[in-house]
């Protein structure tokens, strides 16, 4: 391939800002001139303000060694024919299957298209593009870089968001186990350090507590820094350090969160004289960190307030559990109303079954977390519109164990029950369920109840893939599964009190614009 052909077309000047982390592109080709002209074509070229860093490999084996040391490589331009006629194809297979690098964009380049026909290669190999070397002018090569590097950026952002949500759920779970404000402060410091990679985490919790009626609130201040936690009551805002004092005063005046170069604030104003603030010292967080701080901070604020006001601890725990359940259902493209109804239906079934009022109350708030483990299921499996392949179905089934594992170490009664429900709500009365193939009463009653409540509500609800079933069709299905999927006594109770259960859907309907 001549330099003239490669560099044909208009010149495109580099744009953007210097200093950002460069993209890493790996060139895999046994022809030194291909490396030279590719680098020359992209010299001083930027994609979204980021420079390009080039790595060179002259064989498939060398490429594997480089990728093992450079896991953040964004794009590999791979020659088909190198040490063997199919070396590039085999390299693609090894990158995807042996190195498990699913984010890197792989583009095959060939000077001999007849040896590896395009349609066969695209069908058989997990690549992102296939180009003849003679097609890659300077501009086309730059266009290729734009499209592939943007795709890589988007994939990494999705991974980051998934990991961030998993970390927030896990961190929230650990924080819920705090027995007092001191342990709460210590745990939060640990989680901020782990999630945001902050070397010396610092945060403040400030609650304006109504006084005896004089109209001026006093403060409870919690400070956690340098692995120490201090908390005490203070009598006025002026006692706060200057930067915090100004942020708190402005938030109260505007009734909105306030941020500075040093602090990110989460703020709640629930009563005329009750204001609660959580401030994390994190200079200049980026957009994604702000989203995580908002989510994590909102949960922390609720826990802090509930520990401070001990009489509200149970109600606060219930609200947080529902928020987590709704977050999982939203990711699964279900509705928040569905998880709410599942809890209410489960509670009602428990009452008719003869469970204690305490068990039924726990069941109402634990059942909505039955699918918590789906937060760890990849989008490609969770949202696949077609029938799942056997290995994909195995991944989907793992959500039962994952949900259990996320909650298993909690000492809170609701979350302990939710952990057990997450593990057992796909077991069947006939022993053909998963993950443990439990039979009949081997499955805890809470799991058996939630399984029926979930299916009953799902059948009668709108989904993006179906319309609601008619009531008679739902009845026939439940009757057909009595003694197979569901405990017969539970099915009989639901059918005997049918109008009570169908009234729940009318009382808590899905939003009209959900789908």
UniProtKB/TrEMBL annotation:
GO terms, biological process: phosphorelay signal transduction system
Pfam families (alphabetical): DUF3369, HD_5
The keyword Phosphoprotein is annotated on this UniProt entry: yes
Domain (Response regulatory) ranges: 24-148
InterPro entries with a match to the protein in the record: CheY-like_superfamily (IPR011006), Cyclic_di-GMP/3'3'-cGAMP_PDE (IPR052020), DUF3369 (IPR021800), HD/PDEase_dom (IPR003607), HD_GYP_dom (IPR037522), Sig_transdc_resp-reg_receiver (IPR001789)
HD-GYP domain sequence ranges: 313-510
CDD domains, alphabetized: HDc
4-aspartylphosphate modification, residue list: 79
Gene Ontology molecular function: phosphoric diester hydrolase activity
Keywords, comma-separated and alphabetical: Phosphoprotein
Descriptive protein name: DUF3369 domain-containing protein
Organism listed in the record: Salinispirillum sp. LH 10-3-1
Lineage: Bacteria, Pseudomonadati, Pseudomonadota, Gammaproteobacteria, Oceanospirillales
């Amino acid at each position: 391939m001549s330099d003239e052909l490669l560099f044909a077309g208009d010149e495109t000047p580099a744009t953007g800002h210097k200093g950002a982390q460069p993209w890493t592109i790996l060139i895999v080709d046994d022809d030194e001139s291909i490396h030279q002209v590719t680098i020359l074509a992209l010299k001083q070229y930027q994609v979204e303000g980021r420079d390009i860093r080039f790595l060179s490999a002259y064989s498939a084996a060398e490429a594997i060694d480089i990728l093992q040391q450079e896991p953040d490589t964004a794009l590999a331009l791979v020659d088909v024919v190198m040490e063997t006629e199919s070396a590039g194809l085999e390299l693609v297979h090894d990158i995807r299957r042996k190195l498990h690098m699913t984010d890197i964009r792989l583009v095959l380049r060939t000077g001999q298209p007849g040896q590896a026909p395009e349609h066969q290669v695209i069908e058989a190999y997990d690549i992102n593009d296939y180009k003849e070397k003679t097609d890659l002018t300077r501009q086309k090569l730059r266009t290729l870089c734009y499209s592939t590097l943007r795709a890589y950026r988007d994939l990494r952002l999705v991974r980051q968001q998934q990991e961030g949500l998993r970390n927030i759920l896990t961190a929230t779970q650990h924080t819920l186990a705090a027995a007092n404000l001191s342990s709460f402060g210590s745990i939060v410091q640990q989680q901020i350090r782990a999630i945001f990679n902050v070397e010396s985490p610092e945060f403040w919790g400030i609650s304006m507590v109504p006084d005896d009626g004089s109209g001026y609130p006093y403060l409870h201040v919690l400070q956690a820094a340098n692995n120490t936690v201090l908390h005490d009551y203070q009598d006025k805002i002026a006692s706060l350090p200057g930067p915090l004092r100004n942020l708190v005063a402005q938030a109260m005046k505007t009734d909105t969160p306030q941020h500075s170069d040093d602090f990110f604030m989460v703020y709640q104003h629930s009563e005329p004289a009750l204001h609660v603030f959580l401030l994390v010292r994190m200079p200049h967080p980026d957009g994604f960190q702000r989203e995580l701080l908002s989510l994590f901070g909102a949960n922390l604020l609720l826990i802090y307030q509930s520990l401070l006001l001990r009489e509200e601890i149970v109600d606060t725990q219930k609200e947080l559990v529902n928020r987590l359940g709704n977050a999982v259902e939203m990711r699964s493209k279900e509705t928040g109303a569905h998880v709410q109804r599942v809890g209410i239906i489960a509670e009602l079934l428990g009452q008719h079954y003869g469970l204690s009022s305490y068990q039924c109350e726990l069941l109402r708030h634990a059942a909505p977390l039955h699918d918590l483990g789906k937060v760890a299921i990849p989008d490609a499996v969770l949202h696949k519109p077609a029938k799942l392949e056997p290995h994909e179905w195995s991944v989907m089934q793992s959500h039962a164990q994952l949900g259990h594992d996320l909650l298993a170490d909690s000492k809170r009664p609701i979350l302990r029950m939710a952990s057990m429900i997450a593990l057992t709500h796909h077991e069947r009365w006939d022993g053909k369920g998963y993950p443990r193939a439990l039979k009949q009463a081997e499955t805890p009653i809470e799991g058996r109840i939630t399984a029926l409540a979930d299916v009953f509500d799902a059948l009668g609800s709108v989904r993006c893939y179906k319309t609601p079933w008619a009531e008679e069709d739902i009845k026939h299905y439940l009757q057909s599964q009595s003694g197979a999927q569901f405990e017969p006594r539970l099915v009989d109770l639901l059918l005997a009190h049918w109008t009570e259960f169908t009234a729940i859907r009318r009382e808590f309907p899905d939003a009209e614009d959900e789908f």
